[in-house]
Amino acid sequence: MEYIVAQYRIRTTGKHSDIAACGVRGFAPFAVDSISEEPITMDLQTECRIDRESFTNLETINSFGFEADLAQCALYKNNEGYLFEMVKSDSTYLFAKQHNSPIVQANYGLFDSVDISLLRFGLWMMFGLCITPLGGIAIHSSVLVKENRAVLCLGESGTGKSTHTRLWRENIDGTTLLNDDSPIIRLVDGIPTAFGSPWSGKTPCYRNLSYPIGGFIRLSQAPYNKIHRLSVLNAIGALLPSCPPAFAYDDTLQDHICNTLSDMIASVAVYHLECLPNAAAAELSYNTIFGK
Q1: By CB neighbour count within 10 A (0-12 exposed, 13-18 middle, 19+ buried), where does 2 fall?
Q2: Which residues, 6 or more positions from 194, have their beta carbon under 8 angstroms from its beta carbon?
Q3: Per-residue pLDDT for the chain (292 aa), expressed as one digit of tens each?
Q4: Residue 233 burial class via C-beta count within 10 angstroms: exposed 0-12, middle 13-18, buried 19 and up
Q5: Considering the domain 137-289 in this protein, what is its CATH number?
Q6: What is the pTM of this model?
Q7: Which of 17, 28, 160, 217 can pair with 12 through a Cys bridge, CB separation 3.0 to 4.6 Å?
C-alpha cells in the first residue's frame, strides 16, 4: 500500500499493511492507487521480529502513559537510531527506525489482529520521526480554513481549541474545518502550509487538502476577549508546546522543529487570544487575522 500525507510518501509492506482496513480509517483518503514518483519518506515493514534486547546502549528519551495509562510508552535512542515501545496488557508493539533511513520496522504484522489505538499512535510517532528532519511537524491544533487560508488554533488540552473553531464555523460564513487534532505543517516552496492528516483526535475530519497558513492563535481562557500579536521569541514559545512532546527531550529533533518554526514565523503572525467561549471571540480573532 502507498499513502501520500502532506506530500510525504508512505509505503507499507507485510501483513496488516492496509492501514485503513485495519481500522485506522483516517488513512483511507490518503491512499494512492499508483506508485508515486516522490521519494519514500517512511517505508513501513510490518512483520519484523524486533528483539528489544539486541538494541545496545539505549538512552530513554521519554516515557509516558497513553490513553489514561492503559498503555505505557517509551521512546529510546542509540547511535543507530530510534526504538519506540508500547506495552498494553500482554501486547508489546515495537517500532524501530535507523538514522538517515526511511525504513521503519514494526512487529504488529506478526499479530493476528491489531489494537487500533496503539497502531494509530505508533504510526503518528514514527511518521513524526521521519518528517521532522525534513521540515515537517505534526502540530497539536484545530485548523480552520477561511478565504483559502488556514488558521491554526493551539492551546493546552481543555483550553477550548475545538470550541473556538466551532464558533468560527457557526458565526463566520465560509469557514470549514481542515483537521481537529494533528495537522502537518511544512514549508512548500517557501510558503508555510497546513495539511490535513490521518490523525484528527475525536473528530473524524480526515481531509486530504492543504492551504497556506494565514496565522496561528494560542488560546487561553479569560473572563474577557483580548488578542495581541506575539514577538518572535514569544511566538516560538507559544508554538513549541504544541509540537510532539516526546521530541522535546531529543536535541536533534528539537533543533529541527525550532528551525522549521523560525522559518514559518518569519512570514506568518502568531497571536495570543485570551477569550471567552463566545461568538465575539471568534469574530475578534477573524477580524484581526484577516484585517477586517
Answers
A1: middle
A2: 143, 150, 152, 178, 179, 183, 184, 185, 210, 211, 212, 213
A3: 999 999 999 999 999 999 999 999 999 999 998 776 789 999 999 999 998 888 999 999 999 998 878 899 999 999 999 999 999 988 899 999 999 999 999 999 999 999 999 999 999 999 999 999 999 999 999 999 999 999 999 998 777 889 999 999 999 999 999 999 999 999 999 999 999 999 999 899 999 999 999 999 999 999 999 999 999 999 999 999 999 999 999 999 999 999 999 999 999 999 999 999 999 999 999 999 998 6
A4: exposed
A5: 3.90.228.20
A6: 0.95
A7: 17
Grid coordinates representing 84 are: 519506540
270: amino acid identity, one letter = V
| Secondary structure (DSSP) of the chain | -EEEETTEEEEEESTT--TTTTT-GGGGGGB-SS--SSPEEEEEE------GGG--S-EEEEEEEETTTTEEEEEEE-SSEEEEEEEETTEEEEEEEETT--EEEESGGGSSS--HHHHHHHHHHHHHHHHGGGT-EE---EEEEETTEEEEEE-STTS-HHHHHHHHHHHSTT-EEEESS--EEEEETTEEEEE--S--TTS------EEEEEEEEEEEE-SS-EEEEPPHHHHHHHHGGGS-GGGGG-HHHHHHHHHHHHHHHTTS-EEEEEE-SSHHHHHHHHHHHTT-
Question: What does the alpha-carbon distance between residue 284 and residue 84 come to, in Å, rounded to a whole number?
Answer: 42
Q: What angle do CA 276, 143, 138 make, to 5 degrees?
A: 120
Spans of all domains in the chain: 2-134, 137-289
